[in-house]
Design brief:
The complex is a heterotrimer. Chain A is mainly alpha-helical. Chain A is built from 7 helices and no strands. In chain A, helix 4 runs antiparallel to helix 5 and helix 4 runs antiparallel to helix 7. The longest helix of chain A has 40 residues. Chain A starts with 14 loop residues before the first helix and ends with a helix. Helix content of chain B is 66%, strand content 0%. Chain B contains 17 helices and no strands. The radius of gyration of chain B is 23 Å and the shape is globular. Chain B starts with 11 loop residues before the first helix and ends in a 36-residue tail after the last helix. Chain C is of the alpha+beta class. The two termini of chain C are 47 Å apart. Chain C has 3 domains: 78 residues, Helix Hairpins, CATH 1.10.287.90; 142 residues, Sandwich (Immunoglobulin-like), CATH 2.60.40.420; 106 residues, Orthogonal Bundle (Cytochrome Bc1 Complex, Chain D, domain 2). Chains in contact: A-B, A-C, B-C. The interface between B and C is large, with 100 and 109 residues.
């Protein structure tokens, strides 16, 4: 073995079972909220359950990651362990890519196949018989059944706020890279500065996106319920937004850790993992900008 | 074989290592464990429990179909049974069994001290009971459990689904998280924790097949999560992914589902390929024929599995170019699959064969899985598929690849490695009885289904026309026989755990690999210092 | 549960034997009665024999090893474990076989997809759990429901010859003509299958799939829905009567007359008793599958009507839910499934049966006016 250190196998840990209970309670609560709401019953109990679950999850995340950080700082981890973390994070990001792939796939399918068919084009064009007067357009500003799915009055064009958001995110990818180089060079104050800049850009992004959503709902009648355009638009941008928030939280925690003196110039995988994640979020946005907004 | 001639006593020094202890006492051992062997054991026990539960549901189905007319259950409940049977067997029985085998055997086979991320490993396991608790609880909810088949096609599962569908969706999410983390762990372990000298092309085939399976899992479980999320949104938040009146398409569901679903089929069979590739050489006392081509074949099958999904949907009206593409791609899968079968047969050819229980199950695996492969090839021919699709022919096909395929593969593995796990030999006579009863029962249950399908019996019906009566009765008798036999397996395993002839470190004279260099039963911690592989 | 078991036991003797005598041990697909089904049958047999031959060769070698190379017979293992030439051969040979197989399959598929130049166009709509057939060139249509009595299904009566494969109104087509089917569905996905035609195609809500058939031999052909579509998926058969052209023309004329007659019935003055009588019949075919014959329903998916708010309260709300359905639930809009007469009869029946004695009735004319207002 290249390393003299043996691979660290942790002793028993309470965190996985806490995480299981936390996740189970959270999701059971979430499902109960939805089912009760749909059946017109009270959701109070379900909300309490959901919040308890969420608190257990928060406790678990702090506890489990805290544990790992302590072990890492105690020098228990070998370079081999570091590679395990790297593989783990890479494949986790790959799984996220595939999650988004499902939604992009849905978008391409409806644009290339389903909507034209409903509008009378292509192999299954006779479907249009069922939807007299419906014409296929994209963005879909007329739905086959406007009563069931009232269409949006307009959609959000790419060259206003979305372009600005693109610039924000691309810039943030650069700033996090500058922060990373600074950390490798041992320049901690520069790291903090650029990391803080990245976080600021991320937060602006989230606010702009929130503003855009309010605009869509209030002024354009572009909602989840306005047919397949609204469905794909909000699912893609919404899940991306959720990932941006998660990524920002990671970056904020990294900032706190750096402030507390964690990480060294050559041992800072936690930071790198957050940076990888941030780049991933950025790339997804570029895909969104092209396929959801521009095309 | 590649791993031949690897040997050093890896275990002696684990006892010398100070910070390793034996297992903790009581329930905390299982709740808090980070040990790959404990976690593997829990996976296997969980899997067998689910196998019995899903099997009980199959018995309900077969009892109702014993003769025409409605006798035992009503159609609503019958549909819940077929749905839950499928979900429980796929996600609760077969997949966890292979993850259990992976946990036990991969570190032993590659000379690693444990899985790469032991705490996450524990979490992967415990999420499963949590997910299935939610899933099974839907049986007791108002409106009943999911009743739309394990493929849960929209809009039957969205607009027309029971209220419990939302719980089902979250249960699938939890299973997905568990599978993805389990797969990440397997990949990290294989790529990072191999003993020095064990290059990729020296890895045992079980490790190879699991590496590829784990890749498939990470690639497609998120897609399943995506499709159930779309369902969740359609049900609760008014989106129209699967509703044409908003511009969506019910067929979109099927595309996304089967993009997950077809690789999923290989997720359930590739590890069995791997295990059988250990067992056949061991009992043929001859190295595996064509190791490299076996690896390439598994790789080819995995890659092709991403471009064949629509062969599950030949009747939905996809345009003809698509239909032809998916037909050709599907037929191609026969090539690498054939290579594997030929290699196994060539391994047996001019060997020195003996037929202990693992070998019996492995040989039955090759023969019966191939029969399932043949019917698969028939199903690939799109025009012919119009006649087979959604009939009992399909039911026969996938039960032939899953029961004597995946499940016989699991039994073969269990008997093969039981001596290593427990330190005792299992009762060979009982195990052979288990094999022959399972073999006869299984063929009696599933072979007549081919005839039923060809004669025109659709699947997922609680009652049928009179011309199907005879074969259904035969099939039910076979199913009861197969089901009852599995209690015997439980008995054999319990007996083996509690005692029996002491097993040597290498109880099978023809077996190869690092796992046989450690004593039986395998000590709680093994390979704390990695062995050297030459 | 116990009652069911007892009943099943009591009837076992009486019912088993007819079942056995009618059952058969058919092993293979039948060639069917259309050009398509014959070509499919040939493909099926070709691929089956290819599989059998490969199986015999491969398992022959295997069984030879099992027989001759046993350790107990003193076999000494050889040590070969690689041969590139063999590997290449058994990759290429199967590939060639597949290519040979793909050629006729492709030709058949192309033919099956060619729906042009049809002589009769019929729109087939799947409902939970019945089929609707609309003759597009003739302007009439009707529903086709399972006609096997509940008593047979619940083992209270001996099962008939065409148990579960019989309907009240079969699809009627002329022989020797290319019939184009436009398949769609009203609620969930169904699949329309007649094995003898070699035709199976999914009926997808909101989309239309086209397929076609040309039947040369007159006769009655039976099939079933083959896509799980809910509770009564097993109880929505497809029955097609292929008849000579003259018979077909006469039948079409008759159907048109019936449709006309139905329209006249709307204007007639109906009495309560007449409506109740017709209502009971219409209720059994259209409503009883979900709401049950005694109005008890199967909550929560299918609420009870007996004593329900809808069936005993405001008449307008009752008409609305029957005519327009309730979106997001399994309650369909029956306005375009039933005639005005049947709508009026069903509503009247529901308001007065099973102790829902409101004494109120609604006439076909009122329903007609209601629909016109919409």
């Amino acid at each position: 073995m290249a390393e003299n250190q043996s691979y660290y196998v942790p002793e028993q840990s309470k965190w996985p079972i806490i995480a299981t209970v936390g996740l189970g309670v959270t999701l059971y609560g979430a499902a109960s909220i939805m089912v009760n709401a749909q059946q017109g019953e009270s959701t109070t109990g379900a909300w309490i359950m959901f919040l308890i679950g969420a608190m257990i999850m928060a406790y678990m995340l702090f506890g489990w990651f805290g544990n790992v950080i302590r072990e890492s700082r105690a020098g228990l981890y070998s370079p081999q362990m570091d590679r395990s973390f790297r593989w783990g994070m890479s494949w986790f990001i790959f799984s996220e890519v595939m999650f988004f792939a499902a939604f992009f796939g849905a978008l391409f399918y409806v644009r290339v196949f389903a909507v034209p068919w409903l509008g009378g084009e292509g192999d299954r064009g006779s479907s249009n018989m069922l939807w007299e007067g419906f014409q296929a357009t994209w963005p879909l500003i007329q739905t086959p059944d406007p009563e069931a799915y009232p269409p949006p009055e307009a959609i959000i064009g790419p060259w206003g706020l979305p372009l600005m958001n693109t610039i924000l995110l691309v810039t943030s990818s650069f700033t996090i890279t500058i922060a990373h180089h600074a950390l490798k060079a041992g320049n901690r104050s520069k790291t903090k500065l650029w990391l803080a800049a990245t976080i600021t850009l991320a937060i602006i992004f989230v606010f702009v996106q929130g503003y855009e959503y309010i605009h869509a709902y209030q002024d354009l009648n572009l909602t989840l319920k306005s047919g397949i355009y609204g469905s794909t638009f909000f699912m893609l941008t919404g899940f991306h937004g959720a990932h941006v928030i998660l990524g920002s939280l990671m970056l904020i925690i990294m900032l706190i850790r750096i402030t507390k003196g964690h990480f060294t110039a050559d041992n800072h995988f936690g930071f790198e993992a957050a940076a990888w994640y941030w780049h991933f979020v950025d790339v997804v946005w570029l895909g969104l900008f092209v396929f959801v907004y521009i095309l | 074989m590649a791993v031949t001639g690897v040997f050093m006593s890896a275990v002696a020094d684990t006892h010398a290592q100070g910070h390793y202890h034996g297992p903790a006492k009581g329930i905390s051992r299982w709740l808090l464990t980070t040990n790959h062997k404990d976690i593997g054991t829990m996976y296997l026990i969980f899997s067998f429990t689910m196998f019995l539960l899903g099997g009980t549901m199959a018995m309900v189905i077969r009892a109702e179909l014993f003769q025409p007319g409605l006798q035992i259950v009503q159609p609503e409940f019958f549909n819940q049974m077929t749905t839950m049977h499928g979900l429980i067997m796929v996600f609760g029985a077969v997949m966890p069994a292979f993850v259990g085998l992976a946990n036990w055997m991969i570190p032993l086979m590659i000379g690693a001290p444990d899985m790469a991320l032991p705490r996450m490993n524990n979490w992967s396991f415990w999420l499963l009971p949590c997910a299935f608790l939610i899933l099974v609880s839907t049986l007791f909810m108002e409106g009943g459990a999911p009743n739309f088949g394990w493929t849960f096609y929209a809009p039957l599962s969205t607009t027309y689904g029971p209220p419990s569908t939302t719980f089902f969706i979250f249960a699938v999410h939890i299973m997905g998280i568990s599978s993805i983390m389990g797969a990440i762990n397997v990949i990290a372990t294989i790529l990072n924790l191999r003993a020095p000298g064990m290059t990729l092309m020296k890895m045992p085939l079980f490790v190879w097949t699991w590496l590829i399976t784990a890749f498939l899992l990470i690639a497609v479980m998120p897609v399943l999560a995506g499709v159930v999320t779309m369902m969740l949104m359609d049900i609760n938040f008014g989106t129209s992914f699967f509703d044409a009146s908003g511009g969506g398409d019910p067929v979109l569901f099927q595309h996304v589902f089967w993009f997950f679903g077809h690789p999923e089929v290989y997720i359930m069979i590739l590890p069995a390929f791997g295990a059988v590739s250990h067992i056949i050489p061991a009992f043929s006392r001859k190295p595996l024929f064509g190791y490299a081509s076996m690896v390439y074949a598994v790789g080819a099958i995995a890659m092709l599995s991403f471009v064949v999904w629509a062969h599950h949907m030949f009747t939905v009206g996809i345009p003809i170019t698509g239909q032809l593409f998916f037909m050709y791609a599907t037929m191609l899968i026969a090539v690498p699959t054939g290579v594997k079968v030929f290699n196994w047969v060539a391994t047996m050819f001019r060997g020195s064969l003996s037929f202990e229980a693992p070998m019996l199950f492995a040989v039955a695996f090759v023969i019966l899985f191939t029969i399932g492969g043949f019917s698969g090839l028939m199903l690939a021919i799109a025009p012919a598929d119009f006649q087979y699709h959604d009939t009992y022919f399909v039911v026969a096909h996938f039960h032939y690849v899953l029961v004597p395929g995946a499940i016989f593969g699991i039994f073969a593995s269990a008997y093969f490695w039981l001596p290593k796990w427990t330190g005792h030999m299992y009762d060979e006579t009982l195990a052979k009885t288990h094999f022959w009863l399972s073999f006869i029962g299984m063929n009696l249950a599933f072979f007549p289904m081919h005839f039923l399908g060809l004669a025109g019996m659709p699947r997922r019906i609680p009652d049928y026309a009179l011309q199907f009566a005879d074969f259904n009765m035969v099939s039910s008798i076979g199913a009861f026989m197969f089901g009852a036999t599995q209690i015997l397996f439980l008995f054999i395993v319990v007996k083996c755990v509690r005692g029996g002839e002491r097993a040597a470190a290498k109880p099978w004279d023809g077996a190869q690999g690092l796992e046989w260099t450690v004593p039986s039963p395998a000590p709680y911690h093994t390979f704390a210092t990695p062995p050297e592989v030459k | 549960m116990r009652v069911h078991a007892k009943r099943a036991g009591a009837l076992l003797g009486g019912l088993m034997f007819p079942a056995w005598s009618m059952a058969d041990w058919t092993l293979n697909m039948t060639p069917g009665v259309t050009g398509t089904s014959n070509r499919v049958f040939d493909l099926h047999m070709t691929i089956l024999w290819i599989c059998v031959v490969i199986g015999v060769v491969v398992f022959g070698v295997m069984f030879w090893s099992i027989f001759a190379h046993r350790k107990s017979r003193g076999a000494k293992p050889a040590n070969f474990h690689e041969n590139t030439l063999v590997e290449i051969l058994w990759t290429i040979i199967p590939f060639v076989i597949l290519v040979i197989m793909a050629i006729p399959a492709t030709a058949t598929l192309v033919d099956m997809y060619d729906t042009t130049e049809s002589e009769v166009d019929i729109k087939v709509t799947g409902y939970q759990w019945k089929w609707q057939y609309e003759y597009l060139n003739e302007d009439f249509g009707y529903f086709s429901n399972l006609s096997t009595p509940r008593e047979q299904i619940e083992n209270r009566q001996a099962k008939g010859e065409n148990y579960l494969l019989e309907v009240d109104n079969p699809l009627v087509i002329p022989v020797g003509k290319k019939v184009r089917l436009l398949l769609t569905a009203n609620d969930v996905i169904h699949s329309w299958w007649v094995p003898d035609f070699g035709v199976k195609k999914d009926a997808i809500p909101g989309f239309i799939n086209e397929t076609w058939t040309r039947v040369d031999k007159p006769g009655t052909y039976r099939g079933q829905c083959t896509e799980l579509c809910g509770k009564d998926h097993g109880f929505m058969p497809v029955v097609v009567k292929a008849v000579p052209q003259e018979e077909y023309s006469a039948w079409v004329a008759e159907q048109k007359a019936v449709a006309e007659q139905e329209r006249e019935l709307t204007q007639k003055d109906w009495t309560m008793a007449e409506l109740m009588e017709r209502g009971e019949k219409a209720y059994q075919t259209a409503c009883a599958a979900c709401h049950q014959a005694d109005g008890s329903g199967a909550p929560p998916a299918f609420p009870a009507l007996k004593g329900s708010q809808i069936a005993t309260g405001d008449m307008a709300a009752h008409i609305d839910i029957v005519v327009n359905g309730k979106s997001g639930t399994a309650m369909q809009a029956f306005g375009n499934q039933l005639s005005e007469v049947d709508l009026a009869a069903v509503i009247t029946y529901e308001r007065n049966a099973w102790g829902n004695s409101t004494g109120e009735m609604v006439t076909p004319k009122e329903i007609f006016d209601y629909r016109n207002q919409q």
